[in-house]
Specification:
The protein has about 500 residues and is α+β, with helices and mostly antiparallel strands. The chain is built from eleven helices and four strands.
Length: about 500
Amino acid sequence: MNAYVSRFGIVVVLALSGCGMVGPDYQRPPPATPPTTSFKETSDSYFRPALPRDAIDRGKWWSMYGDHALDLLAAQVDVSNQNLKEAEAAYRQAVALIRQSQSSLYPTIGYTGGISQNGTRSGGVSNSGLVSGGSGSSTTQYQVGGTLSWEIDVWGRIRRTIESDSAAAQASAADLMNARLSAQSSLVTNYFSLRISDERKRVLEQSVAAFARALEIVQNQFNAGTVSQLDVAQAQTQLDQTRAQLVAEGVNRAQFEHAIAALMGRTPAEVSIAAEPAPRDVPTIDAGIPSALLERRPDIAAAERQMASANAQIGVAVAAYYPDITINASINFVSTVLANLISIANAVWSFGPQLAGTAIDGGSRAAQVESARANYDKTVATYRQTVITAFQQVEDALAQQRILEQQENVQRAALAGARNAERLAFNQYRAGTVPYTTVITTQTTALNNELTLLGIRQSRLIASATLVTALGGGWRDVELPPPVPISGQQTSRELHKKSWWPF
């Protein structure tokens, strides 16, 4: 037996040392269109970044706005956001799946044991048909044993599975970072909307106060008999309409505050944000080199890792054409004396390789290979479309950044003209040279122009945050956890304990 085991062990070692893995080795396919040397929107000679801050550390990218309240709120996303906790749990699940697949490379050892009581009874039968006295005997039997089963991964099916699971875990890590960046971006944009809402409330409150003073002046003129009741009604209507706008703005602000609370993983009752002015400066971000976008977007990294995972699954499907080679061994000890149970005389053992494969399956394996290749092609298309979408989002944000800056400058000039017209119209009305409808028209125009200017400022702030998000925030693909090797469960445990995630 020993000679047989030795010879077979040598054969197994030689087979393992020379075996490879069926299926294609992964090579990253290029994007559908190679990145150009510059973004389309950055080639405009008119536009120059006013405050280029591309060199700043974007780990806490929202800090570039210089808003202390925003810094405190955004930091809570990592602590309590439940969507991030869900994504983090999915990543841990993916890492655990790697360890589960790795376990198939090693033997499975089992054990058995038991105690049984066996007996016999003898006796006679009387003339009446009843059992007369007799005698019986029983014995106690003890049994203990062990089993070993080990699938030899000659064709690489298990190793391809580990390769696929490892790439899927990296994709899950990138999904986690993408969810994190998305939550941060949503909080920042909701925060800017809330601050602009505060600004709108301030403008509306000032307008309500101004319209109330105008109503008082008109009322005094009516009492003096110099204007008609129509002027009073028009002034009152304008005041009430502006008050209604102010009340409605309170609803908008409450919704933005509630959205921020949800992104922080808290209930609205737990979060109250005091009114403050919106950031004065809007940082203008340099997009940098387009090809760097492929390293700066976690969703692109996730799509690329999904390609690698799908490619490895082709090898898993191809391996089904080849037989499974398994080493099975067992040993059992059976004895009626417990003290002598573990002895060679009581041993029953077996050892040997087994080969199992499928001869005819009606095309099932061919269909599985075809399905795996189709799934890989699907992930390639997804990857390429993700890259195209990323470039589109960056170009959109760059265009917004450039055009909105121009629009804000024009709108400021329009507001200055509207305020001047308002002042002139009211002075002429008091002099009796124009009707009150002219005053109302100029006041409404000035108010709408100021609210429009605030809307443009809001769009600029959101476009700035959107551009940072489109550029991947502070993320780089080097932050992906390293691929787990084919063997070495300790490495995967260390991967699970990486310190870059705060939970």
